[in-house]
Design brief:
The protein is α+β, with helices and mostly antiparallel strands. The protein is built from 24 helices and 23 strands.
Amino acid sequence: MFAALALPVAARAQAAGSSAAGSPAAYATFTKDLTAQHGLFTIWRKGDKLYLELTKDQLDTDFIETAVPSSGLGGFGITPGLPYLQLPSARIVRFSRTGDKIAVTWPNTSFIAPDGTPAARAIAQTFAPSVVAAAPVVAADASSGRIVIDAAFFLGDLLDVTNNLRQNLGTDKMPGTAYRLDDTRTYFGPSKAFPENVIVEADQTFTSTQPPDAVDNVTDARAIQLDVKYNIATAPPLGSYMPRLADDRIGYYPNIQLQFGTDLVRERQVRMIARWNLARHPMVYYISNTVPVQYRDTIRSALLEWNKAFAKIGYPQAVIVKDQPDDPAWDPDDIRYSTVRWLTQSNRGGYAQAGLVFDPRTGEMIHTSVVIDANLVTFPYLEYEDMAKPLGEAGARSGFAAREAAFAAGAHQSAMFGLSALQAAGDVAPGDVPQQYVNGLLRWVVMHESGHNWGLQHNFIASEAYTAKQIQSKAFTDQYGLANSVMEYIPTNIWPKGVSTGEYFQTVLGPYDYYAIHYGYASIPGATTPEAERSTLRSWASAWSDPRYRFAMDEDVDWGTGHAIDPRIDQFDLTDDNIGWCQAQLKISDTIVRGIQRRYTQSGETHDALRQAFGVALTPVFGCTAFAWHYVGGEELSRSHIGDPSAVPPLVPVSRTQSKRAFDLLDAHLFGTAAWNVSPSLMRQMVYTEWVTDLPQPKWAYDPPVRHDIPLTTIAMKLQRQTIDAMFAPVLLQRLDDLPLKYSRDSTMTLADLFAWMQASAFGELRQGKAASANEIHRNLQQMYARTLVKLMLSPDPGTPYDAQSLARAELKALSHDVSLASASRGLDAMEQAHLAALKDIADRALSAKTVIAAPAPPAATP
């Protein structure tokens, strides 16, 4: 990938340097009329030209390079200050002279062997470096060895912004809207030189003849200027830092390399954790002057909270927090400073992310940052589509930036629900947002993001550590938090009126956070190599079976692909009984809905508040239905190693009783006839406010929905469809079908249970000869599920078990019988009669369909 990006850049550099053909000019003559910026490298500038000076000891030397945008699209995927993870967040860059050119290369650091060995020579021949550019040497000083090169290669699309715009704006679906780099409107922006790094900014214009609507917040979307900062920094000297081995039982970001020094290994992967080098210096944060004054103390306190964990291992001042000084010489681009910055974006529901740069050779972290979007701490009007989205479904396969965007949006959504619950209970006045509540949310989010700065990954089993009774105690949550780690995605801790409540947010470090910091940063006396630490580290990591110290990562919540299987591991759930917690949240949801008309019908006000409150109330409906179907075919995973204290087998069944309890929640709140019961008078009032639309406007100014009312049927159908598709996906059906091979009869849910429970939920009243109780939403469910059975029987997706096809046929026969029974009922209106006739036709046509069943393929020949 690097090589593919590098070729056009190299060509650009050569073209830019063509005017300097021939021997390099004399150094003094060439630089006489240029302006110098002195730092790690000397930058020379004149007009629209930029040159980089290299000393002889900087040739063939490792430097660390990052490239990040310094401007963005207001929330459409490109965010200022954050690296693109399609490329590494940091890479090694070298400058090597070849005649009168400098080869700018990205060496491959992923493959290692001891220097001077045959394996090292094989790696050098097998994994060639990527050539970023062949930059002309335009001036040289023979006596000192200094050379000056043309830096025009920085103006190329090294960040692959073209592809990022394509993905984030969806231009593939809109022919003619793709963006391309416009060379004629691309030039150098500001450049800076500091003692340990230099900054070169490329102001790049990307053009489209017909831009997509998504960027209508740009003044003229036909030409978007994005500024990219290239940062080249001193690489820590090898040997000044000892890497530490990673362990799958504790979550650190790993720096992964393949080692070829020996063949006597089970796997070639060597995983070292990414971490800050406290032996060199503490992590010093500067709070940017862009951060509103009223939030600075909260942010400072959140960052300093990590000192409590480090104090236990001998580093009481691991974190130092300062305000940005009122000094024109201070610059946040100086790599010696870690910063917390504030963003203002037009279409985010709250956003926060950690930025971390580590040496790809060793895993040593050299720079950190935190960015926060202003919308995180505001509670504005949001359309119901913004609120009614499943929580806990952020794809583990997506990039870190996308997952953190989902985290902050989910945290903000949960805080909105919590605030609405407090208003419904009368604890907070309608429209009031207590500052303490806002500060609690901000403190937790900053603690989470700064945890990433220490190298910690997410921990999505952390919420299972405590019982409901424990997190309902303020004394308990003040000491231990709501979960065992701030690295969990934790919802607001809200309970029905009359139930005591602890802290609303995770405002302290959890036991796992102390445990993980000890693993990553505590010294091991006498150990002088990573391998010498192995036995001690294994012992430290052996406590996974203790709920206080459990860890589960992003791949464990990849429910969308069927990879995830443990229903304890989820996002935005609480307690060791997330179904019980959900039942409490759904009770709160009902309370909010019942009180909307009483609380939000003040004279003179619009009806927007009712609409917003209803959207907020749907939050647990979407989140908890997702948690519930995760119990279908579920198994509990253990990361314990053989011989760990109290270790359980890697797979433990989810009991049939627990699975049925989860499905009953789906029946009550998603599929059953009693679900989606909303007052007709409330439905008539939830409209939006119309505004004038005569002139062109960006969407953030006014973007009305298609319908004036809230389409409850459409919302219900979407969630029902998502849930049915998930439960009847081939991989989940396979897992259900396999459970009897691993566990005793009746101990777990079976494939037959899934079909029987779903049949009863969708068609139960038909078996009793009734049909009049089904409203439009339930009739839609019945049509949808009947068609699902037909598909499973006649045209199943690849991988669908034969047992599932057999059960689908059996349920269609039962449906045909039950519809005949219900059709004989008295008092059916025309709609009910038509619906039953359609169901009967769907089932009978499928059962009588003439299909050709292909013979099984012969087994493959044995080699």
